Amino acid sequence: MTTAGVEGRLMRVLHVIEAMHQGGAESLVIEHARHAGPGVEVLVAALNRGGPALEAARAHGARTFVLGGRGAPPRRIARLAALMRRERVVAVNGHNPTGALYATLAARLSGIPIVIRTEHSLHYPGRHSLLYRWLEPLMTVLTRRVVCVCQAVLHSHVSRLPWAARRFVNVANGISPAPHTRPREVLRRELELDPADRVVINVGSLTWQKAQHVLLEGFAETARTQPRARLWVVGEGPRRAELETLARTLGIAERVQFLGARGDVSELMVAADVFVLSSVREGLSVTLLEAMRAGRPAVVTGIGGNAEAVVDGETGRVVAVDDRAALARALGELLADPARAAMLGAAAERRWRVRFTAERMVRETEALYRERPDRTAAPAAWTGAGTEERHAAS
Hints:
The protein has helices spanning 3-6, 24-34, 52-59, 73-86, 96-110, 130-141, 151-158, 184-190, 212-225, 240-249, 265-271, 286-293, 306-309, 324-336, 338-355, 358-370, 380-383, 387-393, and strands spanning 11-19, 40-49, 63-66, 91-95, 114-119, 145-148, 168-170, 198-203, 229-234, 256-260, 274-277, 298-301, 316-319. It is of the alpha/beta class. Helix 4 (73-86) packs across helix 5 (96-110), helix 9 packs across helix 14 (324-336) and helix 12 (286-293) crosses helix 15. The longest helix has 18 residues, at 338-355. It starts with a helix and ends with a helix.
């Protein structure tokens, strides 16, 4: 079916993702369901398991499926292709390596010409299996566009596949306005804070790439000069016990609360004062966008899309990866000067509203589904030219 053949009629778009439990990529799939444009019907297929994110996509109007079951990849690809034919899918968007591999091959089996791959993360050694590395060039040939969620992600992938640069495009992540939140004071009382306490919040999986050990060591330095400083670590992961031990070793256990996985992150952002990411690897963090939306200044490492979202000195601070001293200084500056922190936070909220909304993200992505096959992005999309203009026009 040609692109012209789908204009003026219902376009069924199937998002394929490995799982829909909870996480950054999953939350963005939900946004595609929430903000689907006129004439677009969103379907979501989770290859392995569903969960809260799949339920949320369904609540926003998506028809959802869990492929599940066991079997060799060819059999599962055949099942996915059968789903595409049965549901009369017109366009397919595969998310991250596993979702993209299954989506691309199943779409070709089904004769679906509009195939998009979305890369949510920087490329790094070990991210792709050996089989995927062999298949990726073929998949890229069979893919109309490779959507990268920030310019840094685009660079990391095009540098490996420069011959395909015209297929890559940057569509920055975006999120919706926050749901109604409880007043800041209510949540702070629930978490037993003194009104004078100044709270730093970190949200993310407790894993090596999020580098919360660097955050704890930097915060220990900050705590020496900021007696009212507190730290909330939100999330779960394999490093939790190790990080709790480190907090005790550093003598800051009474200043740090490990809050686990939470469903009220938007409220926690409002109740906190400064957001922090100490990551060594990022795409474009959804939690960073949530902090900006809440009007909170951020201290982030200069990795991935962090420096594309945060303007150093204007909406927050950008520090070097693994630089505990710089992170401690940046946190200390913002905690010690509430007026400046509030000014940077207000600028961050304005930046989110202009550049990182879900509506903009979905409209730009849906435009790619309708794009004529012979219209490919100029190499400028990979060199960086044009990115600011595109955001400014959105």
